[in-house]
Amino acid sequence: GKLTALQVMRDAPVIPVIVLSDVSQAVSLARALVAGGIRMLEVTLRTPQALACIEAIARDVPEAVVGAGTVRSAADAQACAMAGARFAVSPGYTHAVGQACRDVGLALLPGVATGSEIMMAQEDGLTELKFFPAMQAGGPAMLKAWGGPFGDVRFCPTGGVSMANAAEFLALPNVACVGGSWLTPAEALARGDWAQVTALAQQACLLQRQAA
Ligand code: 3PG
Question: What are the protein's UniProt keywords (predicted)?
């Protein structure tokens, strides 16, 4: 069946934001994250190899649920769905991206940073949103303020989140999970240090969250 954004957010406390430029690393990296307890994987469309990486993970790592990040257009949504992505994450929200994701059956976690953007996503029926860039746009205090007028929205803060501040976000009742790139450091990928990736994923999975 079709995945929902809520299922994506509730699986693990952290959604890894992955930048891959080498297709031969995609499967090993995905397996390393799965071994550490994380199977919802956001592969960003920031490299020419991203779609091929999504395809490889969808084909060869059935334990993982691969999604695409940095989805900025209807064409991005169509391309990542064709490659086998099950969900999409976007840095902002437009009705066109929302419509394209509905059309191709992709769960969408759209980025918002203002009340107007939250209201626009809600007009299209979306109540699970990414807060981006979380630290730069107001951090935990912003999410506390949004808890009043937007009490029905669950957020995934992403951008500047790390092991040092993830717990503070996850303690908020309107935070279902966080996103971040710290589980897949460029140096670990360069070395092929999959054990380090697994260890970082295991550590992230120990984070507690409050949201129902
Ligand atoms: C990104 O833009 O790459 C994501 O939001 C992750 O941000 P981070 O590198 O600060 O975790």
Answer: Carbohydrate metabolism, Lyase, Schiff base
**DSSP category for residue 21:** -
**Residue 81 DSSP SS3:** helix
168 belongs to the catalytic site: no
Show me where the domains of the chain are located: 5-205
Q: Would you call 195 helix, strand, or coil by DSSP? A: helix
Task: Report the alpha-carbon distance of residue 113 to residue 168 in Å, rounded.
Answer: 19
Query: Do 82 and 105 meet the contact criterion of CB atoms below 8 Å apart?
Result: no
Token pair for residue 82?
């064709």
Q: How far is the CA of 161 from the centre of ligand 1 (A)?
A: 8
Domain 5-205 listed as CATH 3.30.420.40: no
- Per residue in 94-107, pLDDT (tens digit) is 999 999 999 999 99
> Band of the pLDDT at 1, cuts 50, 70, 90?
low
| ipTM of the complex as predicted | 0.91
In the structure encoding, which two tokens stand for residue 6, read together?
Answer: 């809520």
Active site residue 42: yes
Rounded Cα distance, 129 and 191, in Å: 34
- Give CA–CA dist 54/111, Å, rounded: 21
- Calculate how far, in angstroms, residue 148's C-alpha sits from the geometric centre of ligand 1: 26
